[in-house]
Amino acid sequence: MVNYGLKDRVIAITGGASGIGRSAALAAATDGAHVAVLDVNQDNIDKTLTELRAKNVKAEGYALDVRDEVAMGKVAKAVESDLGPVYGLFSSAGISRTAPAEKVALADFEAVLDVNVNGVFLAAREFAQAMIQRGRGAIVNVGSIDGLGGHPGRLHYVSSKHAVAGLTKSLALEWGRYGVRVNAIMPGFVDTPLLRANMPEKYIERVVFDRTPLGRMANSDEIAAVAMMLLSDSASYMSGAIVPVDGGMTAGFLTRGQGGDYASKNLLSQGVYSE
Ligand code: NAI
């Protein structure tokens, strides 16, 4: 098992009660870190805390909505007094919606940006206060490959994830002088409740196989592992990095032709690709 050197450090995780955030919480605890789980879902917080405490680390849950500025400020302080100086923040809380661009309602557009951008901003601003004071900290935000390019049917989500990349870079520029590193990971397709709720099985199967060099979805532990590395001292010279964790999907223009792409069908018939 990889040792990230996070033993006895305090890591706060938004969206820590499900999917990628939960995997990150478990990975941090397995490494010996004390974990604060911030999420709107109290039931899932409780389940995750049980799993975390079984690893003999301190773990506390905080039911909050990442859009709530006042609550975020209070929770950031509460985590410090409950668990100790917060070393790391992993911002994973996020939502997704789908609609054709010409039909996206303003309310839906704002709802996605509210959680995915405002939430990441507020968590970073509030948790960074003490990190800046101490001159030490690491923040990892969760973007998406949808923060690296467009994606039909996901205008609001794509806009929000591009904003996460911009926010991450700006924070890295401003807070490097305080010893606070800020990076983002951009996952591809990850098998979580969020993905299952937003994409039909057939689409997942076809698109993922068609476009991913590794030919499969990620499981959330594979995303959490990269987040742990970025939080750890192994990444002590990384800040402002936007790191795809996508099975190679954004490396170029691979298509195996399953999506009905004409050019790739031609290449298939020439034996350049195999089915
Ligand atoms: P998930 O739905 O399994 O977990 C998200 C967690 O965030 C849930 O526990 C939910 O209760 C919490 N949450 C949602 N809104 C919240 C709010 N307003 N305040 C506090 N907590 C809130 O989803 P998953 O897949 O683990 O997603 C985590 C992050 O990864 C998101 O930012 C998502 O956009 C991103 N991502 C996911 C990908 C995937 O394929 N699953 C791909 C690329 C990025």
Automatic annotation (TrEMBL):
SUPFAM superfamilies: NAD(P)-binding Rossmann-fold domains. It is an enzyme of class 1 (oxidoreductase). Keywords: Oxidoreductase. Pfam families: adh_short_C2 (PF13561). This is SDR family NAD(P)-dependent oxidoreductase. GO terms for molecular function: oxidoreductase activity. PANTHER family: SHORT-CHAIN DEHYDROGENASES/REDUCTASES FAMILY MEMBER (PTHR42760). Its EC number is 1.1.1.-. InterPro entries: NAD(P)-bd_dom_sf (IPR036291), Sc_DH/Rdtase_CS (IPR020904), SDR_fam (IPR002347). It comes from Seohaeicola nanhaiensis. Belongs to the short-chain dehydrogenases/reductases (SDR) family.
